[in-house]
Amino acid sequence: MSQPPHPSSSFGPLDVHLLREGSHARLYERFGAHPDGSGAFRFAVWAPNATRVAVIGDWNGWNDEADAMQPRADGSGVWEAAGIPAQPGQAYKYRIWGPDGRYVGEKADPFAFSAELAPATASRVWAGSHEWRDGEWMKTRAARNALDAPMSIYELHLGSWRRRDGQFMNYREIASALAEYMGWMGFTHVELMPITEHPFYGSWGYQTTGYFAATGRYGSPEDFMAFVDHLHQHGIGVILDWVPSHFPTDAHGLALFDGTHLYEHADPRQGFHPEWNSAIFNYGRNEVRAFLISSALFWLDRFHIDGLRVDAVASMLYLDYARQAGEWVPNVHGGRENLEAVGFLRDLNRAVYREYPDAFTVAEESTSWPHVSRPIEMGGLGFGMKWNMGWMHDTLDYVHDDPVYRRYHHHRLTFSLVYAFSENFVLPLSHDEVVYGKGSLIGKMPGDEWQQFANLRALFGYMWAHPGKKLLFMGGEFAQRREWTHEGELEWWVSDQWDHRGVQKLVRQLNRVMREEPALHQLDFDNAGFQWLEADDSERSTYIFLRKPKGGSPPVLVLCNMTPVPRPGLRVGVPTAGTWTELINTDATEFDGSGWGNLGGVQSVPVPSHGQPQSLVLALPPLSTLYLRAPVAAAAVAAPAAAEPAALPAPAEASAAAPAA
Question: Which of 91, 339, 540, 552 is buried deepest, with most CB atoms within 10 A?
């Protein structure tokens, strides 16, 4: 006969119903360790196939006879204990016996808010709080995160961005340095590689064991709250990489949690990921879906996170991902689509946008799965945006070629515009492209040193002008030479060298112009915001297009010359008469270029070209990208004030991480 639930149980009938249904979105309020109001703590864990569970920890000498847990009588699989004399900061685990009384082991709490530092694996009791001061950000973030807002994302690995005397900086120290640097550089958002607790530092956080715990490597949960708060107060949004696609099989983690395949599929053809040597969640189990959705909302609820970038979505969508014939199980219709994962992703996005319409989700999805960033009601998955992996690979393949061969691969750069508006795309130059022997961004560029830097500057100019939001991995903004490694900090010393500093100053200027010019961000996801003027000049490897705003503001003309041959006297058609102002010239001397240019602007002449009534005759520098803004009408509309990040500090205020301009 089952024992009755503990009289101070936090679970009500509705909680149990929603857990079983898979729609409980805040299980972290019920499971885990929580103060019970009497100076003690209550504990709850889901282990439906266990025959005995005890909570063991520092307060009871890790004695499993001291604090036995009781199963609820409703058959939910929830085990509870209350009145436990634990104290904040103390370590604990669950000792579990599985079916038939077999001993399973000691498991960390799946809902723990804090954990011991690796290689230790216990959970920690936490009951802290933070007094938030980001009210102004939270009131305005709907506009800052809107699809028509400027967005330039700085992807960051906390352990290797900056260090102090070779050691990790804590969340608060990083926040202070990062806010100053982000403000100086003009990025609007930072994207953190996973900070959910992970036992192996070298996994960069992508092998998560603690889905509700910020890693203790950089401080406490309160410290991470202060990190987010500080960035918000400086006008910077925070995006988290979040990994619901797989989890490690460490003995203290989720795998075989109650002696059975509880969180993962039992069949290795469904439950084991051969590429990452990890377990795959069972998205068909309601309680597992509720666990993951609760994790997603936890970071938005308790840490004011602005967006979630969902990792490895393609591996979730396809049953045959990284598998050979006979190594996977078809769906009920005989197909390769993981219908249960599709349902989970839609449930996830419904929950996020229902609770936080001013936040967003981004899919890292590397295939041509349709409508990833389209509403669920239209057959989509419901994400706000999607990484454009095709653009990334085509572009890097193109710029890796010596310019003399680029004429034969001209349409690698134009192809992305065939599908650019089929999704709400983020253009990523991410950490994945600068590790495992791929080299740094500057190292991918062909030619001598001058050509390498000119190529990289031209690439960044093209990228910032291309429709879509921008993402750049740390170190790329100052052309770090060394391939990224998580051991040690970035090569900040090279940003003191003029050529590297020139790239850094260009990225800063691109961010400023992107924010200030509505044409460069308002219609990133609408083909009305883009017009080719010259897409087929393969002989000269030039590309010319217009970016257009919603209305009232001037369009921006963009020209790319992907060869080291200067193009003087180039005639380009334009729609508007007057002086077109040069906003960006990646070959300018301030960026360590050769200084070719157009003296700040070009006056149009009434000679039709490229299907336009006016034209400009200009100098297109070698290996460069130019932006020229149309004449500004008296009633021109400025970029929305709500979408602006904090003002850039004067150069004299910049720290060592932000060298003076």
Answer: 91
* pLDDT, position 643: 37
565 in Cβ contact with 611 (< 8 Å): no
Residues near 52 by beta carbon (within 8 Å), at least 6 away in sequence: 68, 96, 97, 101
Please report, for residues 113, 217, 252, the alpha-carbon distance to residue 126 in angstroms, rounded to integers and kept in the order given.
Answer: 6, 16, 19
Q: Which of 309, 513, 546 is nearest to 417 (CA)?
A: 546
Amino acid present at 478: F
In degrees, rounded to 5, the angle at the alpha carbon of residue 93 between the alpha carbons of residues 90 and 99 is 165
> What is the per-residue pLDDT across 264-303, written as a single tens digit (0 to 9) for each?
999 999 999 998 999 999 999 999 999 999 999 999 999 9
> Which among 480, 482, 478 is positioned nearest to 505, based on CA atoms?
478
Q: Is 187 helix (H, G, I), strand (E, B) or coil?
A: coil
| Percent of the chain surpassing pLDDT 90 | 92
pLDDT one-digit tens code per residue, 303-323: 999 999 999 999 999 999 999
Helix, strand, or coil (residue 29): helix
Q: What is the β-pairing status of strands 78-84 and 70-71?
A: antiparallel
pLDDT at 559 over 70: yes
Spatial CA neighbour of 278 closest among 294, 255, 257:
255
CB contact set of 513 (below 8 Å; sequence gap of 6+): 464, 520, 583, 584, 627
Catalytic residues, by residue number, are 311, 364
Q: How many CB atoms lie within 10 A of CB 333?
A: 8
241 alpha carbon, distance to own chain's centre: 5
Average pLDDT in the 601-625 region? 97
Residue with tokens 């919603």: 550
Instruction: Return phi, psi of residue 555, to 5°.
Output: -75, 165
Asked whether 604 and 577 are in contact (CB, 8 A), the reply is yes
Contact 253, 234 (CB under 8 A): no
Cα 451 to Cα 400: distance, rounded to the nearest angstrom: 12
Q: Tens of pLDDT along 46-63?
A: 999 999 999 999 999 999
SS3 at position 193 = coil
Q: What's the pLDDT at 652?
A: 29
Residues 6+ apart with CB under 8 A from 27: 19, 111, 290, 291, 294
Q: Letter for the amino acid at 245? A: S
First to last CA, the chain: 75
The answer, yes or no, to whether residue 339 has pLDDT greater than 60, is: yes
* Phi, psi torsion values for 403, nearest 5 degrees: -55, -25
pLDDT band for 237, please (50, 70, 90 cuts).
very high
Percent of the chain past pLDDT 70, that is, above it, reads 94
Positive or negative, the CA dihedral 17, 22, 28, 34 is: positive
Q: Which two tokens stand for residue 70?
A: 């009781």
Kindly report the average pLDDT of the chain as a whole number. Answer: 93
Q: Which of 44, 69, 67 is nearest to 57 (CA)?
A: 67
Prediction pTM value: 0.93
- Identify any residues that bridge with 616 across adjacent strands, giving them in sequence order: 572
Q: What is the Cα–Cα distance from 333 to 338, expressed in whole angstroms?
A: 11
Q: For the beta carbon of residue 135, count every other beta carbon within 10 angstroms.
A: 10
pLDDT band at 9 (very low <50, low <70, confident <90, very high): low
CA atoms within a 13 Å half-sphere pointing along the CA-CB vector of 178: 36
Encoding tokens for residue 266? 């039992």
State the Cα–Cα distance between residues 345 and 337, nearest whole angstrom.
13
Which is nearest to 183 in space by CA: 657, 650, 660, 649?
A: 649
Q: Say which residue the tokens 């395949």 belong to.
A: 261
Q: Please write the tens of the pLDDT for every residue from 489-524.
A: 999 999 999 999 999 999 999 999 999 999 999 999
